[in-house]
């Protein structure tokens, strides 16, 4: 795996800084990157309602367009287009997506084959994690299609291991500020000091990884069960417990239900897919993707967590 230390990235950071390195309310609009509200489902019609996206080609990064699998697959790419909307996203219900792959990996493939997207074509994102930020910047051509960025999104979305770019951008995601993320990524790539707020957020993430490793855990079958004081960055668990198949973290909600988060880890059998395990037979509130999910949006469960883990282990 290529590390940041093995690549000369100051020039990359300089280019990024030209677009986002200075405080400017116009940075996003100048890059023609649009941030739309987060939603559980997004249709072509929803995209067409956005200012600047009413017609013509649009690039959507890191969230799924409903029905995209019925669109046209682009030549030599695991990427689909529907009604001139190109969806650079790893959430499609395809076997090729049920593995460690993220949207920035697809963006890297696209740009290497087709070049960066014309600046007049809008790019749309709807959240602010590592994968969203990097996939949009790569598609726009502000960042080059380097594997160091592909490694970062795999660490952020799948393995949970320490990675300087992943840890940096993931620590910023709840700020909901694309420009803040891009600006501080530029500073990092140029080897310069981060903004004070960015330093604080990064320190919090690194401390969280250390604290997760110290939480009491019990093993029930193939499940590592961990009680927490509240919602945690479950994406970090695969890096903390590589010997586990599944980590199940849980905490008590204000309504006295248990909020459960599941994460596949390094030792999960090849081909294991949470979507195919019928977890809703245990927990009707559960939802998620092939390697991660929770019952947060569904209201949690009254089922005792140890019994939940026991039943889950039987499904595995």
Brief overview, please?
Helices cover 35% and strands 15% of the residues. The protein is an alpha/beta fold and 316 residues long.
Helix-strand pattern, N to C?
HHEHEEEEHEHHHHHEEHEEEEH
Sheet bearing the most strands, described? Answer: 6 strands, mixed
- Give the uncertain stretches in residue-range form: 1-8, 21-25
Structural class: alpha/beta
Indicate the mean pLDDT.
88
Q: What's the Cα radius of gyration?
A: 20 Å
Strand order of the largest sheet: 1-6-2-5-4-3
**What's the multimeric state?**
single chain
Q: Please report the total strand number as a whole number.
A: 12
Helix segment tally: 11
Distance between the termini: 30 Å
How would you describe the shape? globular
Q: Report helical residue fraction.
A: 25-40%
How much of the sequence lies in strands comes to 15-25%
Characterise this structure.
- This protein has 11 helices and 12 strands.
- The chain has helices spanning 10-20, 27-31, 44-48, 103-114, 130-140, 147-159, 164-172, 178-189, 196-212, 237-240, 305-315, and strands at 33-35, 58-61, 72-73, 80-82, 85-88, 123-125, 217-220, 223-227, 246-252, 258-264, 287-289, 292-294.
- β7 (217-220) and β8 form a beta hairpin.
- α1 runs antiparallel to α8 (178-189) and α6 (147-159) crosses α7.
- 42% of the residues are buried.
